[in-house]
Fold:
Amino acid sequence: MKLPKLLAVLVLAAGLSACEKCEDVNLGKLEFTNELVSFLPAQPTSVASYYATTESGKLQLKYEMPAKNATLVIPAGKNNYTGKFDPNSCKNYYTSEEKVFTSQITGEKHFSIKTKYRKDADPDRYNAIHDKEEVNDVVEFEVGYANIYPEPVPYGTTTITNFTSRRTFILSDAATTTLDGITYKQEFLPEVTVGGVTHKNVYHLYLKQPYLEAHEPRSEKYPIDFVQGIYISEGVGIIHAYTFRGKNLSITVE
Structure:
C-alpha cells in the first residue's frame, strides 16, 4: 500500500475509534419565565373580540393560537472536539420552546402579523450561555406589508405584481426608560392616542433609520413600503402599526 493511502486509512481508523468517546451533550431546558406573556395576543372570549382598522375598513381579526409549543435545539458554547475530526458532529446544546401566533384579518390585503414568544437565544448559531437562568424571554413581532403594484415592476431577471416586506421588532425588556438598540428604539409612553383611541402604558418600537433589505425590489415609479414602527400594550399585543409611507393599522379589543 502506498504511503498516502496508508496514512488516510490510519487517520480514518483513529477517527472512528475516537468517535465512540464523543457524544452530543444536552445541557438542559431553557424554561419560560413568563414575564412577558401579558404582551401576547389574548384569547378572545364570547364577549370580546379583536378588530383591525385599516384603509380597507374595520375588519375582524383572529389570532391562531398554537395547540402545542414548538421545541427548539439551541447550540451552546463550543463544539466538543474530543476525538472528533468533524467539528459539526458533536454539540453542546439546550432545548427550549416557542409559541407562535399568526393572524388572519378578514378582507385585509396589506397587513399581516406574526407574534412569537421565545427565549433570547438563536437556534441557528452558537450561543454563549454561561447561566441558563439569565436567558431572558422575548416577544418577537413580525409585521408584514403587502405592496400591490398597479402594473408589473422589475425584480431581478423578471417582474412582479406584489411583494410583502417584513420588519421584525423584539420586546425584550418592559422598561420605562428608552432603550436604544442597533436598528430600532423602544420608548415607554404613559398615555398616547393612536387611531383615534387613547391608550395608557404603551411601548413604542420604531426603526431608527428606515431601510430596504437587499432582496427587496427597487422601483422609482412604485417605491416599496414597509412597517416603520409599532405600539404594544399589555393584554392586547400590537395595538397600532404604521408604515414608512403613511399607511396605518389599528387594533382594538371590543
Notes: The radius of gyration is 24 Å. The mean pLDDT is 87. The helical segments are 3-19. Residues 29-76+89-253 form one domain.
